[in-house]
Every structure is written in C-alpha cells, then in structure tokens.
Design a protein that fits this description.
The protein is built from 7 helices and 9 strands. By secondary structure, it is of the alpha/beta class. The protein has a single domain, classed as Rossmann fold. Strands 1-2-5-4-3 form a 5-stranded mixed β-sheet, covered by helices on one side. It has a 4-stranded mixed β-sheet with strand order 6-7-9-8. The longest helix has 11 residues, at 134-144. The radius of gyration is 17 Å and the shape is globular.
Amino acid sequence: METGFWLERWERNQIGFHQDAVNSYLIKHLSELRLRAGGPVFVPLCGKTLDMLWLDEHGYAVLGVELSPLAIESFFKENARRVRCGPAGVFTRWTSGSLEILCGDFFDLSREDLGGAKAVYDRASLIALPTHMRPAYAAHMAGLLPSASRILLVTLEYPEGEMAGPPFSVGEREVGRLYHDWFDIKVLGSTDILAQNPRFRDRGLTRLCEIVYLLVKNSDAGP
C-alpha cells in the first residue's frame, strides 16, 4: 500500500492488525533464529507490536522500522518507556535502551542501518503489502541481510476473492516464488485460525490459516 494509506490508518486508529498479546509463534520458534545473548533482531513494519517489548525484556537488541511516528510514539508511551529521538540519515531514530525504532520507509533502509542484524521477525510486514509490492520487498530484504541470516516469517492464507486485504493472503507457493533466489525455506507449522477470528468470518472468509516459515539466506546469494 502507499505511504498515505498506512499513515491514515494510524491517524484514524484503524489498527485491527495490532495484537494485544505477544505472538505465540515468536515465543515457540524464537530458537530458530539462533540468536546469541543480546543479539539484534530486525522487525520490519513494526507498528507498536508488543513482540518488540518481549524481545527486549528477554535480553535481545531490537531494531524496528515504521512509517508512522504516531505508532512509534504510542508504543513508547503505552509501555512507559523513556525515549530519545533524533535524526539518523533519512530516518528519525527513537531509542530506549537497546530498543530502537527507525521512523521512515523500509525501502530506504541500507545494510548499515541494520547494524549487522542477521535475524528478522516478520509477522505483519509481508502480508501488509499488495501483490505488486512484494517482489521489491523480498529483494530489498535479501539485499539488507548477510549470508546465513534467518527470517521467522508469519503469513496468512485464505481463498483469494473472499476478502480484500490488507492483510493479504500469501500462500506457500508465493513465499517460494518471492524468496527462493536467496533463501532456503522451511515450513515450521500451519494453524487454522478462522474460529478464533470472527471479524474475518464477518468479512466473508470461509478459511483462514496462519503459516510460519523459517528462511535461511544461502551462501550462494552473496555476502
């Protein structure tokens, strides 16, 4: 979606994608990222997710990127975190201890901005993007990450045509098409979540699955 779309969603508080609890897949599969103590985790299109707070509280350095300054301000305010704010190239950097959020466009990120992060947690980033933006997103992500980097990716899959996203349906075949040039891909699990999400039934869905992947950047894809 265009920048203005997401800024407006936050201004109008239309944030049904925000979860009020830490994501269970992050807790269950964190070990797949093979993080060392204090290691950095990159969270793209992070919003105000509590997953960042959980990672921080468990001793990891967190770097998020988010378009909306309102989302970032809400995150720190709602979690009673003292924060410093200042320019960082084309971004504005919000910092609280070892937790940082860059306010700006994901596509403006450079590898230097990630500070050597080799672990990525993507719960609501890829599925927020329409079809025509996903190849550029996957290619840019691959370019940001060194070899052996690992991505914990969570997607949704539902019958196309039953609902207009976001969130969009991104199936296993598409994940393969988007990432196979750079990453080895493994499905970690799949869960039918329609019964637990009546708001999606109300939007016309007859099936809704959440799928968790591990992506590992292969050495042939470059440094």
